[in-house]
Specification:
The protein has helices spanning 11-21, 37-53, 71-83, 96-106, 124-128, and strands at 26-30, 33-36, 62-66, 86-90, 110-113. With 135 residues, the chain is α/β, with parallel strands linked by helices. It has a single domain, classed as Rossmann fold. It has a 3-stranded parallel sheet, with helices on both faces. A two-stranded antiparallel sheet has the order 1-2. It starts with 10 loop residues before the first helix and ends in a 7-residue tail after the last helix.
């Protein structure tokens, strides 16, 4: 019927609708930090721009994220969704050959490691060659 509201198709659609309707409503509570829908919307848009402009991430690409649980994880994931990219979540407890297998299977075009998390070294150099943002 004409004028009927279309159902959300993705989690990003659901988030965008909620952010538009209630930007001041709390969305994330992490320790003492509270982030509203509006703040997460702004931060995820900033993350999308940074991933696109600084790291060269484009639609169809994949970000491999090596980061523990923290609020930035959410806006990076939403930023990837806004760009039309996948995000491969690498477990920070995994190291060595297991981490390399995870990274290899992700087909990531960009690797982002949180401060304090080192990207795989040594044997990984060949694997990481060609990924944007990797030494």
């Amino acid at each position: 019927r004409a004028g009927a509201r279309q159902p959300a198709r993705t989690l990003l659609d659901v988030f965008a609708r909620r952010a538009a309707r209630a930007p001041h409503k709390a969305l994330l509570l992490f320790g003492a930090e509270v982030a509203t829908y509006g703040q997460v919307e702004r931060r995820s848009s900033q993350a999308a721009r940074a991933l696109r402009d600084a790291a060269g991430l484009r639609a169809g690409g994949c970000l491999a994220l090596f980061m523990g649980n923290q609020p930035a994880y959410v806006w990076l994931w939403l930023g990837c969704a806004k760009l039309g990219c996948a995000m491969a979540c690498l477990n920070c407890s995994v190291r060595g050959a297991s981490l390399l297998r995870c990274l290899r299977s992700s087909a990531a075009t960009v690797l982002l490691a949180a401060p304090g998390e080192a990207a795989p070294r040594g044997a990984a150099r060949g694997l990481l060659h060609g990924l944007s943002g990797c030494p």
